Amino acid sequence: MEMESIQHFLESKTILVTGSTGFLGKLLVEKILRIQPNVKKFYLLLRAPDDDSAIQRMQSEVIGKELFKEIRGKWGKEFESFISEKLIPVAGDVSMQNLGVKDANLSEEMWKDIDVIVNSAATTDFYERYDTALNINSMGVMNVLKFAMKCVKLKMLLHVSTAYVCGEGEGVIMEKEVYQGETLKSTSSKLDFEIEMKLAAQKLDALRSQGISEQLIASDMRDFGLQRAKKFGWPNTYVFTKALGEMCIGQYKDSLPTVIIRPTMITSTYKEPFPGWIEGLRTVDSVVVGHGKGKITCFLADPGCIMDMIPGDMLINAMIVAMVAHANQCPSRTSNNNNNNNNYNNIYHVGSSLRNPVNFSSLRQFSYSYFTKNPLINMDGKPIIISKGIVFSNMAIFRIYMLLCYLIPLQILQLLSKAFPSYFRDLYVTNMRKFNLVTRLVQLYKPYVLFKGIFDDTNSERLRGKAREMSSSNDEVDLFNFDPKCIDWKDYLINIHIPGVKKFVIKK
């Protein structure tokens, strides 16, 4: 059977996108509208109480972004009518049954129309409160699956996960399924999604019965999530609940054609629709920005640690190719001769660590080079002078350094600020903020800046081959390129990514 070209497949299709106000959701919608304006329509699920609020969110948080400037330029005065024909905002929420869609007629219409569902809804906060993370990253997947099963002509359910569902893995990490009940600690009890949901609800009820403030409840629920994640071997609530979400797919997908995409660290666009577009600080960008602002002068990291990054537009290309390649196909297992484990053909690592690695030492050098030539400006209008900073690859030495160079001097400054507030208070506050920032970032990113794993992308390499087979021309091959080997990391980081972060994210 001859394969359908990628662009031709998208023609006349109806696509439901969850997480459509997020970074990936917007990139996906923009890409398809730009390269295949004959797509039938998108249903954009937006967390909103009513239709008017959903429309407002779509206008301000999706099509109102600079990301859509090329499409605006192409359509000119007809842009608004084009958008109103193609994009249908739907008030709802993945954490609710029926995705929170209250209009029965709309639900029926969606079940009849939808060809493809892309579930990119997620909370990516490493330290999210447990009930929230479970409701979106785990229960949300269940709700999407149940909704998908009612779509009578569904050709594909594509779920966006994360490569770091592996936890703090080492060596070559394969594109294999996360099995129901699987844990990363051999001594742990069996992991059960339904039990975790009950425990989170019980914990929340117990806290509310104490009559404490919502702020304290939120803090305790965040701590509870971290405690549950670490109990089973995951470093934070985000990757733990994403792993639970994958388990839900494995157990309940039935005969649905499904694909799981596992990106590594997602960065700004490489080329499309223009280089350097980004929204929010992503992954290690917090460290880069802290460095540029002169707030991070020391950090914990293995200089040789591979920073597995992939530009957002390349990830979108991989998602679209996988969507087309596996339309109407049920997941199948294949034997992997290297590790005797079963792999799913439909699980894809999308990253760069195997084929084009870049390490933390290089990232640090590129950041220093950029901000030395293009310094940020402080509140007084003066350029911020930065140093390369000190990097510690050992946690024990890092803690000793922080104690001697920051914590003890801070304690002295605190005493002086109380005795002579006009002289020392501002200095104490500034240094305490720096200390808290470095401490928080180290806790958040420690599993990733000391990461010892390399993500195998055998399935993704096969998918690149399928993309060439499905493409009708060399131009279409280029249009859906997601091969990390083409990236010159020095050029990309210094001339595209960091300037993009500076332009779109950094607030003075």
Automatic annotation (TrEMBL):
Residues 17-319 form the Thioester reductase (TE) domain. It catalyses: a long-chain fatty acyl-CoA + 2 NADPH + 2 H(+) = a long-chain primary fatty alcohol + 2 NADP(+) + CoA. Pfam families: NAD_binding_4, Sterile. InterPro entries: FAR, FAR_C, FAR_NAD-bd, NAD(P)-bd_dom_sf. One of its GO terms (biological process) is suberin biosynthetic process. One of its GO terms (molecular function) is alcohol-forming very long-chain fatty acyl-CoA reductase activity. The keyword NADP applies. Residues 406-507 form the Fatty acyl-CoA reductase C-terminal domain. Keywords: Lipid biosynthesis, Lipid metabolism, NADP, Oxidoreductase. The keyword Lipid metabolism applies. Its EC number is 1.2.1.84. Catalyzes the reduction of fatty acyl-CoA to fatty alcohols. Belongs to the fatty acyl-CoA reductase family. This is Fatty acyl-CoA reductase. The lineage of its organism: Eukaryota, Viridiplantae, Streptophyta, Embryophyta, Tracheophyta.
